[in-house]
Specification:
The protein is of the alpha/beta class. The chain has two domains: 232 residues, Spore Coat Polysaccharide Biosynthesis Protein SpsA, Chain A, CATH 3.90.550; 81 residues, no CATH class. Helix content is 43%, strand content 15%. The chain contains 13 helices and eleven strands. The chain has a seven-stranded mixed sheet, sandwiched between helices. Helix 11 runs antiparallel to helix 12. The two termini are 31 Å apart.
Length: 330
């Protein structure tokens, strides 16, 4: 990642200090996407106000909401210090492209970046914990992605569960076949932002899965926090919900048999192949083997399973993955 070093240093000098009167705290750019978010947006904005890490700015990309979303945003923009919130028009191509349009924008500059959904509630320590984790372990020139578990809550913020606890180490071999955390938990450093910019806008199923694949594939660090710092609201209008229920597990099995998982993998493989020069040499080899596995005959797929070393975060999940590979559904 040496080609990022000079830009890292320049931006660190410019953005390392406070822009809004908070001394000695690195600047975090919170990247929020909105679409018809009036019902829960106020609670999320209030939770941002209550963050113990105070030096942040909010960049909101709105995908043409026609409810009160923009009115709410402008009210908070007027209330907050000048420059605290920026509102822009989204690309109108779905939530994935909306988030990636923010992550790929070189005009959004800070030392750290955090994805933010419109309908969650952040616990006060969310940014503080993520930044302490990154700073404690990072080389500033190596992409670092922090992610983790969430607490599931109802529309009225009543507890209704916790996302699965994953214990196997994050890696590119896992990222090829599984997304381990929602984008709403993700915080990443400047080196990761520059890597995302270099990869550019890509056609992938989800922005969070893409970040896990890209950053792990480029020899970056991925940290999965087993302690939740976010209330993940479950409601009828949510585009993505909890994944640990019987219904969610059943839907995943149907998705595999109908070929949707295979189609998603095709998108990811194409995107990764297009930026394979950004990946480590060993990960380029794994990607090639995975692409071959997906098109190979049965006897060759059996051999390539071991070569690729793919795994999911549970033994049952890995067994299901191997079965899907044998049946050519991956």
């Amino acid at each position: 990642m040496t080609n990022f070093i000079s830009k890292n240093i320049a931006i660190e000098h410019k953005w390392g200090s406070s822009r809004v009167g908070v001394e000695d705290e690195p600047l975090v750019a919170i990247l929020m996407c909105t679409y018809h978010g009036e019902q829960f947006l106020v609670e999320q904005l209030n939770s941002l106000e209550e963050q113990t890490h105070r030096n942040w700015v909010l960049v909101v990309s709105d995908d043409c909401s026609n409810d009160a979303t923009l009115d709410i945003l402008r009210q908070y923009q007027a209330k907050w210090p000048q420059g605290k919130m920026t509102i822009r028009n989204g690309p109108k191509q779905g939530y994935c492209n909306n988030f990636l349009s923010l992550a790929c924008d070189p005009q959004i500059q800070a030392l750290y970046f955090a994805f933010c959904d419109q309908d969650d509630v952040w616990l006060p320590e969310k940014l503080t914990v993520a930044l302490k984790t990154i700073v404690a372990t990072q080389n500033i020139h190596i992409p670092f992605l922090y992610c983790g578990r969430t607490r599931y809550v109802t529309e009225r913020l009543q507890p209704c569960g916790t996302s699965p606890l994953f214990v196997f180490p994050p890696s590119f071999r896992n990222a090829l076949v599984q997304s381990i955390a929602g984008g709403n938990t993700m915080v990443f450093n400047l080196a990761a932002k520059l890597l995302i910019e270099k990869a550019g806008l890509v056609d992938v199923p989800s922005h969070d899965w893409w970040l896990y694949q890209l950053i792990s594939g480029a020899q970056g660090d991925v940290f999965y926090d087993p302690v939740p710092h976010l209330l993940y609201r479950q409601h009828d209008g949510a585009l993505v919900g909890r994944n640990d229920s019987f219904r969610a597990k059943t839907e995943r099995m149907v998705m595999i048999w109908q070929g949707r998982f295979r189609a998603w993998n095709a998108q990811n493989v194409a995107a990764l192949t297009g930026v394979s020069y950004l990946l480590g040499k060993n990960h380029q080899d794994i990607l090639r083997m995975f692409a071959l596995l997906r098109e190979a005959r049965l006897k060759d797929r059996i051999r390539l399973i071991e070569v690729c070393g793919l795994y999911r975060q549970t033994r049952r999940g890995t067994f299901s993955l191997f079965l899907a590979i044998l049946l050519n559904r991956v």
